[in-house]
Specification:
15 strands; 4-stranded antiparallel sheet; AAA_N_dom; 3 domains; AAA+_ATPase
């Protein structure tokens, strides 16, 4: 029961209050005294620093939440820590940073810039402000242990944990992909002891890109759209129940850019290449093992497929005892079956100089999704090469070259070679014209009917206009008067 007699009397309350007031005054006096002593002992700017630090520690004591992201959890790498490190590398332009660490790994393209410990980085995500700080402390075993402190207002706790951290994970993956050094894996051998191959990798440093590749503009556009569609279709492939893979057959004469195309594709997709040399594989089992050892987001390349699946010439010592030899059907089964369903984002590329020599099984619909023809150099391809090699978009000699090119088959490789012969654009272009003309003459000799036709269509005033300067004796014909439907002279006349 509540009893009034237990309440303190008014006199008691008053006397307690006066004692408390007297005590507070005493404390204040002591504090003032102490403060004046501190003022005398500790310099003013040092005091400011301490107060700022204390202020930071105790700022919004109740409104701020801090997440700790350790480098390791029970000796296992913490992916969130790694992702944060990578993510914060993209924030190093933050004006609040005073110290940064700069480094460069061998063969990496870019410098790596990371934050120094105790530096604070402010980041914004959907109007939320968060603060990152890398801290370093000795752990129980006396070793340095690193961790990130991620602080923000407590009202955003759900959003930061539920959304922002996932965003950091995703962004860091993208950043790694963007800066990835591409690898070229090819087959190394164990030596005589064992005939099985193993994948060995080196950095892929092929400079070809789709911008430098001279090929039919429409085909190039179609391929790029196809690749873009392919990489976006993870869910689509899942839905329709197909392995997420795509096959391309590149065909065309030597020197038309098939290998350069593969390098350009790898650069565009940022996929590693596995160069599968079938002539060094001797059984279907070995092929399967090698294909299963390839990683996702990669391209398996089999060059000159018409030659590599000819198994007749293989030396007997390579024949597997159990009769398990590499066969075309073994290869196709592997590509269509087990291997392709064991990974994601796989591309397989076959190249050949002779599409007509390929086994129909390779060409049947659905096997290679796209057949891409790499042709001899076209006038449009020549312009791209001239722009790349000579940095010119136009020149009076272009017209003559373009007409010659319509009549003579010349590979982009040969054009590139001619354009590299001199630093002077005109000299290079003249060299190319001389080459095309000599090839035209050779081909006419081996095809007299065409020569006859040519005689009828060449300008009768031919030879009048000798080229001025540089002592060039080339006869300047008015090529445009030729029949536009003239057949190409050397269909298989390679350099
Ligand atoms: N289409 C092209 N565009 C730009 N450069 C090209 C092209 N084709 C060839 N080249 C140049 O010629 C060189 C050789 O070409 P590449 O090796 O790609 O030809 P390929 O078709 O693979 O030949 P092969 O059938 O002999 O393997 C390239 O390094 C490049 O400099
Ligand atoms: Mg090649």
């Amino acid at each position: 029961m509540f009893s009034l007699s237990k309440l303190p009397s008014a006199t008691t309350i008053l006397s307690t209050y006066s004692s408390l007031t007297a005590f507070m005054m005493l404390v204040k006096a002591i504090m003032n005294e102490a403060w004046s002593v501190v003022n005398q002992i500790i310099p003013q700017d040092f005091q400011t620093k301490i107060l700022t630090k204390l202020g930071r520690l105790y700022r919004h004591p109740t409104s701020e939440v801090t997440l700790i992201i350790h480098e390791q959890n029970c000796h296992v790498t913490n992916e969130m820590f790694e992702a944060s490190e990578v993510y914060l590398r993209s924030k190093t332009t933050n004006p609040s940073l005073e110290k940064l660490i700069v480094s460069k790994q061998p063969r990496e393209k870019n410098l790596t810039i990371t934050i120094e410990k105790d530096q604070e980085i402010v980041d914004f995500f959907e109007c939320i402000q968060v603060k990152w700080k890398l801290t370093n402390k000795k752990n129980d075993s006396g070793r340095d242990s690193k961790f990130f402190e991620l602080s923000f207002h407590k009202q955003y706790k759900e959003k930061v944990i539920g959304t922002y951290l996932h965003y950091v994970l995703k962004r860091s993956k993208d950043i790694i992909e963007e800066n990835r050094t591409l690898k070229l894996h090819s087959l190394g051998m164990y030596g005589d002891r064992d005939e099985s191959g193993v994948w060995k990798s080196i950095n892929l440093e092929h400079p070809a890109t789709f911008d430098t590749l001279a090929m039919d503009t429409n085909i190039k556009k179609e391929v790029l759209e196809d690749l873009d569609r392919f990489v976006k279709r993870r869910e689509f492939y899942k839905k329709v129940g197909k392995p997420w893979k795509r096959g391309y057959l590149l065909y065309g004469p030597p020197g038309t850019g098939k290998s350069s195309f593969i390098a350009a594709m790898a650069d565009y997709l940022k996929f590693n290449i596995y160069d599968l040399e079938l002539t060094s594989i001797y059984s279907n089992t070995e092929l399967r093992r090698l294909l299963l050892a390839t990683k996702n987001r990669s391209m398996v390349v089999i060059e000159d497929i018409d030659c590599s699946v000819e198994l007749k010439d293989r030396r007997s010592r390579h024949r597997a005892n159990n009769g398990d030899q590499l066969t075309l059907s073994g290869l196709l089964n592997c590509i269509d079956g087990l291997w392709s369903s064991c990974g994601d984002e796989r591309i397989i590329i076959f190249t050949t100089n002779y599409k007509d020599r390929l086994d129909p099984a390779l060409l049947r619909p659905g096997r290679m999704d796209m057949h891409i023809h790499m042709s001899y150099c076209t006038p449009c391809g020549f312009k791209l090469l001239a722009s790349n090699y000579l940095q010119i978009q136009n020149h009076p000699l272009f017209e003559e070259i373009e007409v010659l090119m319509k009549n003579v088959n010349v590979t982009p490789a040969k054009v590139a070679e001619e354009l590299m012969k001199s630093d002077d654009a005109e000299t290079s272009l003249e060299g190319l014209i001389n080459f095309l003309e000599s090839k035209e003459t050779d081909c006419k000799k081996s095809n007299p009917e065409v020569e006859e036709e040519e005689r009828e269509t060449t300008n009768p005033k031919e030879g009048e206009g000798q080229k001025a300067g540089k002592g060039n004796k080339r006869t300047k014909k008015t090529k445009m008067t030729r029949k536009t439907n003239v057949i190409k002279y050397c269909i298989n006349c390679d350099d």
